[in-house]
Design a protein that fits this description.
The structure is a single chain. This protein has 125 residues and is mainly alpha-helical. The two termini are 27 Å apart.
């Protein structure tokens, strides 16, 4: 009986750690993604709408990270599908000469985020 409880606790602890990795990885990799993308964008007027968009982006990241840390499996699965599709689209766009210059630098962020979310959402190793 005690052995079963220990195995259950270890499985729960591993699942919780996967969601912690997914949450903080999601937040960190998206902030790196934002920094890389902003460094490749030509200079622009940082007006009120741009600042509000950045604030909304950071708040959304914070909200999604919070729910990932709470262990929301469906959220992790939906985000993993979104990031998987974004990764495929970015990889496909590398074949086009008119693609955004930062794509080769952004693609690893997308792939790592996809893996971390899939690891939590579908219990990958």
């Amino acid at each position: 009986m005690e052995n079963e409880n220990t195995q259950t606790i270890e499985a729960l602890d591993l699942r919780t750690r996967k969601f912690i990795h997914a949450g903080y990885g999601f937040l960190g990799l998206n902030l790196v993604y934002l920094a890389i993308a902003m460094s490749f964008i030509p200079p622009f007027n940082l007006g009120l709408s741009a600042i509000l968009s950045l604030v909304a982006f950071v708040l959304l990241l914070g909200l999604l990270t919070y729910y990932l840390l709470k262990g929301k499996k469906m959220l992790a699965q939906v985000l993993a599908v979104i990031f998987g599709l974004r990764s495929l689209f970015s990889a496909y766009s590398l074949m086009d000469v008119s693609t955004f210059q930062a794509v080769p630098y952004l693609l690893p962020c997308l792939l790592l985020t996809f893996y971390l979310l899939g690891r939590a959402g579908w219990d990958w190793p």
